[in-house]
Every structure is written in structure tokens, then in C-alpha cells.
Design goal:
The complex is a heterodimer of chains A (393) and B (136).
Chain A (H helix, E strand, L loop, with lengths): L11 E8 L10 H16 L8 E5 L7 H9 L5 E4 L6 H14 L5 E9 H5 L3 H6 L20 H17 L3 H15 L13 H6 L2 E4 L1 E2 L8 E10 H4 L7 E10 L15 H12 L8 E3 L5 H10 L8 H6 L16 H4 L6 H12 L13 E8 L4 E9 L1
Parallel strand pairs in A: 2-3, 2-4, 9-10
Antiparallel strand pairs in A: 1-7, 1-8, 4-7, 5-6, 8-11, 10-11
Helix pairs in contact in A: 1-2, 7-11
Chain B lengths: L17 H8 L4 E5 L5 E2 L14 E5 L3 E10 L13 E8 L4 E7 L11 E9 L3 E7 L1
Parallel strand pairs in B: 6-8
Antiparallel strand pairs in B: 1-2, 1-3, 4-5, 4-7, 5-6, 7-8
The chains are: A alpha/beta (393), B mainly beta (136).
Chain lengths: 393, 136
């Protein structure tokens, strides 16, 4: 069996984290949102652009050679740079690739970032609101989909939720526990897009979208960007902010597709998590907080099972126990997540994981004594997955 | 003069999928059947999804299967489906193995369930295309 090499464990660190304005930021391009986040991450690290020699990015899926467009805007030549294409799994992969590039001697200090003006794109006209699409038409299936009225990521994930409910008795009551916990976290985060508390009754009274998903099972459309700066653990010691060590990472993609086999109810988080746990040398019980890719409530539940925080089929009981709430057994998506803070394709999950481990939040937002955070990324036609395990330095 | 209601999108066949749509027009569900490994595959492509062989025939499948999963659209994403709301989109697993995306007809959306046995039916669109669907 091939196992991830623990030689990379704790060799690099996140030394700066930043986000742009989040939510509705009309008139700002995805590139400018990312530039804003990168500027904030640099300030956080006490670094200048001239200290950066690596850039790994992703932007809206219709942007060709995104990292070049970004570098041009930053006035930056890089020793190592590329754009990734694993959907929402790309952002953790950018951090993993930065660690590999640094350890290969190809770069010393790498900016990883993602930005997208998704709210603006889906609210530019009445027709755009109906379509709710962030990619141009020609990137969508032309047959075996549209003729049946199959559109959008909501339905794709709702298929998984439905099958999980059928096989394991999961209910919308379980999904409600996730949506309401993350909203509670968002109300403690002044930057979050959603500030109004969400009750169980609000969840069940909301309109259905593509059932079994209603409005509050779905993540937000957000303008926004996030960025982190990765460098060696040695270099990290001399910088302004307390570094957060990159203890492990993993990746797995069920490329056969979401509709194939059991992929929608036993996700690639199983193998990706296993790889990350092995590199990190830890077990799920040692994780203090998780920041999971919550494009839909169901994806949180299935990942909790697949990462081994509970048994397969027991995700419902786990979330209903209150475990995910700040103060609970496994505080999750403590900024509000993509369901309630802002949907920036997993980039803000990394930012939040790093911030929790620095323990700089006021008490009501802070995971007490947080030492280890597990962060997940999911996307790429629903089957690409990546895992990041961070440790307080 | 009244505006005609917006139409549903029609599938745009590729070179590989053309025989599938030609078969549907004759109310036959055809799929690529590999002579090398004996398996069916879908969606259509030039090589077998299981063994990469290019040696295949287009064979009629039973059209019998079960609903692996389904969703119910309550929200409109395309004006062509306004009169259908709420409508069901399902993944059907055929007896022969392949799974395909489809609509279920003749079952109220509230009566839908996973693993329901279904059989192919053919919906002739007046625009000259036949769309395979499934009925309980």
C-alpha cells in the first residue's frame, strides 16, 4: 500500500490569512476580490509582495490561466505558479501543492487564493437569477440532462441526500440541525453574509428548492475571496503572526462520477481523510474543530461519517446531538460556513481553520484550547475531495 | 397574437450518441455493448468504459430497472419547465448495469421512492426528437 510520506508533516506553515469583503460586493471583479484578500493576508503575515515567489490560484471556471491574470494584477513574477481545476477541492490542494513546491526547492513563500463574484454573476438580471449559473452555458451538458430539466448543483447533491435518507433513515430534521448550528455561528461573525438567527421552524417553513433540499439546505451565492500564505516552518518563526503548522493533507477523486457506485453516499472523503490522517499521524478523536465543505447540509453529514467522527449511517444522530455547535464535542464551520458566512469554494474554511488555531477570536467565537483543525474541500462534479489538517504551533 | 410558451431544451446529440437518439426514435433503448468484456456502458463514447475496447455493438436493453435516487424540482431553472413544476428527475439503474438520468412519468412526486421498479417509455417530442423516460 502506498501511504503518504510523513516527512512533510509540520514542515510548512500558514503564516497569513485574509479575506475580501463578503456577500454582495457589486462592481468588483473576481480578480479584484482576490487581490483584496491577498493584500489582507500579506498584512496579516507582515510580508510584502516582493517576499512572494509562488502563486497558486483558482477563479471562476471560465477564467483561462487564472494565476497569470492574477499575477499581472499583483505585478508579480513567480518561481512557481499555476491554476488548479478540481472545483471546490482545489483550494486545499493549492496549500498541499505549495508545501510540495517549497520542499522541492521550487519556491519559498507561496500565496494560495480563490475569488469569485458569484453573487453578482447570478443576480445581474432576472434571467440570470432564474438560471442561477456561475458558468457559461457551453460548459454544461448538452444532452442527458437539460432535456429532463436537470440543472444545477442543488439537484446533484439532493440525489445523494435522498439515497442516504433511503439507506440510513437520515431525515431533514438532521439537516436542520446543521443549518441552524452554522447560522448560530454566523451571528457571531460580523463579516458573515447572514446575520439573522435561523430557527428549526424557519428551516421547515422555507420554500423547497429541489427536494429533499429546501432553501436553508443550500449554501449562499457570494462575492468574495480568501487567501493564505504558506512558507517553511523555519521561516515562519520570524514572522509577525503566530504560524499554524500544516500537519497533513490528502486527496482522492472518485473520477468515475457522482452517479457511479456508492460515490454519493460514501464519498472520496473516506480515502482523502485516511491519507491526511496518516500523514498527520493522528486519529479523528484528536481533532478539535472541523471546517467542512458545506455546499449543502447533507455534505456535512456524509463527511462526518466518512471522516470517521461517527459510523456510517449515524451522521444524523451525531449532528442532532449538538456536537457541531461552538461549545459542542466537535465545533464545525465556526465562521458560519458556506451555508451562512459566504460561499468562497472552501477557501474561507482554510482561513477560519487557521484563525481558530491562533486563538485570536473573542471567547464566544473561539473553540476553546483548539490544537488541531481538519478542513475539507469538495467539488469538481461532486467527486473531487481534499483534506487539510492544521496544528497550532 | 399570443406568445408561444417557452420550449424545453432538446438534447444536442454528439457523434458518439447519435445511434442512441436514432434508437429512441424507434422506441428502442440502445446502448453500447462491449464485445471484449461483455459489459454495457453509458453515456455513449468511442471506447468501452470498462476496458477501453473499440469493439462494440449497439444493442437493445430491457428498459427495466429501478430508481437509484430522485429529486423533485420546486424551483424553476429554465422557463420551459414552468408548467411541469413540481417535477421529478431520477437516476435509473438498468438491469444491465448502466445508470441514466431521466424523468419519471405517471407517478405523483409524493409517491416516489428509491428502488421503485420502472420501465422505459418513449416521449415523442413534436420537434422530431424522442426522449426516453421511465414509468412505474
Amino acid at each position: 500500500m502506498i501511504v503518504p510520506d510523513p516527512v512533510l508533516r509540520n514542515r510548512c506553515a500558514i503564516v497569513g490569512a485574509g479575506n475580501s469583503r463578503l456577500g454582495q460586493v457589486p462592481g468588483v471583479s473576481s480578480l479584484d476580490l482576490l487581490a483584496e484578500a491577498i493584500g489582507n493576508a500579506l498584512d496579516d503575515a507582515g510580508l510584502q509582495l516582493r517576499d512572494i515567489d509562488g502563486l497558486i490560484t483558482r477563479g471562476p471556471d471560465d477564467a483561462y490561466c487564472h494565476h497569470q491574470q492574477m499575477g499581472e494584477r499583483l505585478g508579480l513574477n513567480a518561481r512557481f505558479s499555476t491554476s488548479l481545476d478540481n472545483g471546490g477541492a482545489s483550494q486545499i490542494l493549492s496549500v498541499a501543492l505549495a508545501v510540495m513546491a517549497i520542499n522541492a526547492g521550487l519556491a519559498s513563500t507561496v500565496v494560495c487564493g480563490y475569488g469569485r463574484n458569484a453573487w453578482s454573476r447570478t443576480h445581474s438580471s432576472a434571467a440570470a437569477r432564474v438560471k442561477n449559473q456561475t458558468r457559461p452555458d457551453d460548459q454544461h451538458n448538452q444532452e442527458f440532462g437539460p432535456e429532463y430539466g436537470y440543472f444545477g448543483a442543488v439537484a446533484a447533491h439532493a440525489f445523494g441526500a435522498q439515497r442516504h435518507m433511503h439507506e440510513f433513515g437520515t431525515t431533514r430534521e438532521d439537516f436542520a440541525a446543521i443549518a441552524t448550528a452554522f447560522r448560530d455561528h454566523a451571528t457571531r461573525n460580523p463579516a458573515a453574509q447572514m446575520q439573522k438567527p435561523l430557527s428549526r421552524e424557519d428551516y421547515f417553513n422555507a420554500r423547497e428548492i429541489v427536494s429533499p433540499f429546501g432553501l436553508y439546505d443550500c449554501s449562499l451565492r457570494s462575492d468574495g475571496a480568501g487567501a493564505v500564505i504558506v512558507t517553511s516552518a523555519d521561516r515562519a518563526r520570524d514572522l509577525k503572526s503566530r504560524p499554524v503548522l500544516i500537519r497533513g493533507f490528502g486527496s482522492h477523486n472518485n473520477l468515475t462520477g457522482w452517479f457511479s457506485g456508492d460515490n454519493m453516499i460514501r464519498t472520496a472523503a473516506i480515502q482523502s481523510g485516511d491519507a491526511a490522517y496518516r500523514m498527520a499521524g493522528i486519529a479523528p478523536a484528536e481533532v478539535d474543530t472541523v471546517q467542512l465543505y458545506d455546499c449543502f447540509t447533507y455534505m456535512v453529514l456524509v463527511q462526518l461519517e466518512d471522516y470517521g467522527f461517527c459510523k456510517k449511517g449515524e451522521g444524523g444522530a451525531f449532528v442532532r446531538s449538538g456536537a457541531l455547535r461552538l461549545g459542542g464535542r466537535l465545533p464545525a464551520n465556526t465562521s458560519g460556513g458556506q451555508l451562512s458566512e459566504a460561499h468562497v469554494e472552501g477557501m474561507l474554511q482554510i482561513v477560519e481553520g487557521a484563525r481558530q488555531l491562533r486563538r485570536e477570536y473573542p471567547k464566544e467565537r473561539q473553540v476553546a484550547d483548539a490544537e488541531i483543525a481538519l478542513i475539507s474541500g469538495h467539488g469538481g462534479n461532486q467527486v473531487c475531495h481534499s483534506t487539510l489538517i492544521l496544528q497550532r504551533a | 397574437m399570443t406568445d408561444s410558451p417557452p420550449e424545453k431544451p432538446l438534447p444536442r446529440a454528439s457523434a458518439e450518441s447519435l445511434p442512441y437518439w436514432e434508437g429512441a426514435k424507434q422506441h428502442r433503448l440502445l446502448m453500447q455493448h462491449c464485445r471484449a468484456c461483455g459489459q454495457f456502458w453509458f453515456p455513449p463514447s468511442a471506447r468501452c468504459h470498462h476496458c477501453l475496447s473499440t469493439d462494440f455493438t449497439w444493442d437493445e436493453v430491457s428498459g427495466e430497472g429501478r430508481i437509484y435516487s430522485f429529486v423533485v424540482y420546486h424551483r424553476l431553472y429554465h422557463p420551459g419547465f414552468e408548467r411541469d413544476l413540481p417535477y421529478v428527475v431520477a437516476i435509473v439503474e438498468l438491469r444491465e448495469g448502466p445508470r441514466l438520468l431521466t424523468n419519471i412519468v405517471g407517478v405523483h412526486w409524493k409517491d416516489m421512492r428509491c428502488d421503485l421498479p420502472v420501465k422505459a417509455v418513449f416521449d415523442d417530442d413534436p420537434r422530431g426528437v424522442t426522449i426516453p423516460k421511465f414509468a412505474a
